[in-house]
Amino acid sequence: MILSTSQPYWCPYPGYFYKIALSDVCVLLDQVQFPRGMTWINRNRFKNDQGTLWLTIPVWKKGLGLQQIDRVRICHEGRWATKHLKSLMTAYAHAPYIGQHADFLEKLFLAKMPYLVQLNIDTIHYLAAQLQIKTQIRLQSELQVTTQGHQLLIDLCKKTGAAHYLAQRQAHKYLDPRIFEDAGVELTLFNPPTLIYPQLWGPFIANLSVFDLFLNCGLQSVRIFWQAAAALGA
Question: What pTM, to 2 d.p., does this model score?
Answer without folding.
Answer: 0.95
